[in-house]
Design brief:
CATH topology: Nucleotidyltransferase, domain 5
Order of helices and strands: HEEEEHHEEHEHEHHEHH
Largest sheet: 7 strands, mixed
Shape: globular
Number of strands: 9
Keywords: Kinase, Transferase
Radius of gyration: 19 Å
Structural class: alpha+beta
Number of domains: 1
Organism: Thalassospira lucentensis
GO molecular function: D-ribulokinase activity
InterPro entries: ATPase_NBD, FGGY_C
Number of helices: 9
Distance between the termini: 71 Å
Strand content: 15-25%
CATH architecture: 2-Layer Sandwich
Strand order of the largest sheet: 3-4-2-1-7-8-9
Protein name: Ribulokinase
CATH class: Alpha Beta
Amino acid sequence: PGIPIPFGAFDAHWDALGSGGTQGDVVNVVGTSTCFIAIAPDDVVPVPGICGVVPGSVTPETTGIEAGQSATGDVFEAIARRSGRDLPTLMQGLDAYRPGQTGLLRLPWDNGDRTVLVRPDLGGITLGWDLGHEAEDELHAAIEGMAMHTRIIHDRMEQCGMKIRHVVNGGGIPQKNDVLNQVYADVLNRPVHVPESSPTGVGSCIMASVACGAIADIATAQQRLAPKPRILNPRPDAVATYNELFEIFRAIYMGFGQGDPLDLGSILPRLRAFRIGG
């Protein structure tokens, strides 16, 4: 009697708290796959294509909206493996790439689409290849594709009443990959908050501290335990380019994914124009 016994929760939900996420935030828990945790008010409506909209799943007074990418870091690792190099080596120099410069557009369906199409039967697509492309180009295009798929997911949340206050890149990858963080900021046209140290496991500490009475509430525990963020801001020129590229990405995503009309004849010339700087 008198001994508090907390129970477990999904890792990504508490990673969202450990990353400093509060109501109005979307935390992208980026690892081998990505789990998107939006912390929404109680009155949020169901979101088509997003299976998990659960009151109280993150904190008692909010509704958790959970979406995901079936593979993220696994895609990056696969590209590195096929090139015969490790991922840190392949990442070298990618910070010098300008938006869309590869002329490649990559849909990250290598392990199917979890959100918003919910289609495990899809496969990855890369358009725009020529004989000069290298593995580094595919990797940068894969990062851009992940960011654009993230934008589709965030847009779907907002269409259903989720007003996004902050975007937080949690999980293991953002600590080691500022190329990814900057591309996300540019594609989403939002500042991206990245915890200064790893948030993994911090959410469990936050909940345990409240459960045992050491700290009064979740918000106070986050202020004391969650790592402070550093912020990467979108670059206006990059935002403009990615808005154009996103139009093509979205058309291909919806065309191949759900049969929307698609002007196939215009896609490759438009991608080639990005490659040559047009």
